[in-house]
Amino acid sequence: MMTTRRRFLTIAATAFALPGMARAGRIHTWQGVALGARATIRIDHPDAASIAEGVAVEIARLEAIFSLYREESALSRLNRDGVLRNPPFELLECLSLVDAVHDATDGLFDPTIQPLWRAYADAGAEGRRPDAAALRDLVSRTGWKRVGFDAGQVTLLPGMALSLNGIAQGYIADRVAAMLAGRGLGDILIDTGEFRALGGHPDGGGWPVRLAAGGTVPLADRSLATSAPLGTTFDRDGMMGHILDPRSGLPSGARFREITVTGHSAAIADAVSTASCLMASREDIETCLSKLPDLTLASIATA
User: Fold this and answer.
1) Is 134 exposed, middle or buried (0-12, 13-18, 19+ CB in 10 A)?
2) CA pair distance 194, 276, nearest whole angstrom
């Protein structure tokens, strides 16, 4: 079975130490799914169950925008038709964030790699690598700056398609946090595959997030995203990673085992941690983080 990044993050999530849960039994934990990943909301509130129901409705609404697996999602229709008129605000906002991260990463974060990703997935299912000539052709069709978007429509050139999997999970966490904050709620931990703490832990301090590579990061009013080059692999040997270089079409190298970034925005932390797996050194990652607001390299594990 191929390892998946979502499974990797789920394994990490199950190892969290959450003070007060066993002692008081008062933290309500909702579990669901967001973009195929297990999602959880941990909240201490008398109306926690009904609040969680509202979160589930919001996640479902956002999935109808960002999912690659729902045929009638906004993103699926854009990829199928090459144009999406009157795009949802959330899609436009996410594309604007992509634009900023693309520039800050010197083009390494590029959602137009979706056709490349599909080529690897199809080849991996057949136990082979993609054809080199086919990869060169697909690379020639990538390029974030060739995507057009404004309030009226989003447009793709022929042969292009987008994957927002490297940013949408974080974006959904941000949107859920904004919805709950708008209701005056706090001391909540949101996990949609990436983490967003709204306030801190009800018992004080931050929510302690234990990383798969070791160590714990306390989160309070902050987000955390982890990327691992071999967190998802296309081959059964687990060596052909899912983070693809838009310049070459090849998987990221084995320089890093896991990179964790924290920041205010889970979407930006998600995207930057993904792109960081393609960078040559810790210094390059730190330089990239300095170009965007309020980002910290919380942990880096070398291969």
Assistant:
1) middle
2) 16
User: 103 — alpha (psi -120 to 50), left (phi > 0) or beta?
Assistant: alpha
Q: Does the pLDDT of residue 178 top 60, yes or no? A: yes
Question: Which pTM value belongs to this model?
Answer: 0.90
13 dihedral zone (left: phi>0; alpha: psi -120 to 50; beta): alpha
The pLDDT of 92-103, averaged and rounded, is 98
- 174-185 per-residue burial string, b: 16 or more CB within 10 A, e: under 16: bbbbebbeeeeb
CA dihedral 180, 182, 186, 190 (to 10 degrees): 30
Integer Cα distance of 119 and 125 in angstroms: 10
For residue 123, what pLDDT is reported? 92
18 occurs within a structural domain = no
Burial of 113 (0-12, 13-18, 19+ CB in 10 A): buried
Sequence-distant (6+) residues with CB within 8 A of 296 are 261, 262, 263, 289
CATH of the domain at 147: 3.10.520.10
Show the 3-state SS of 19-87: CCHHHHCCCEEEEEEECCEEEEEEECCCCHHHHHHHHHHHHHHHHHHHCCCCCCCHHHHHHHHCEEECC
Which are the contacts of 184, defined by CB distance < 8 A and separation ≥ 6?
none
Domain range for residue 160?
5-13+27-302
Residue 270 tokens read as 């998600």
Query: What is the C-alpha R_g of the chain?
Result: 19
Residue 21 lies in a domain: no
**Structurally, how many domains does the chain consist of?**
1
User: What is the amino acid identity at position 227?
Assistant: S
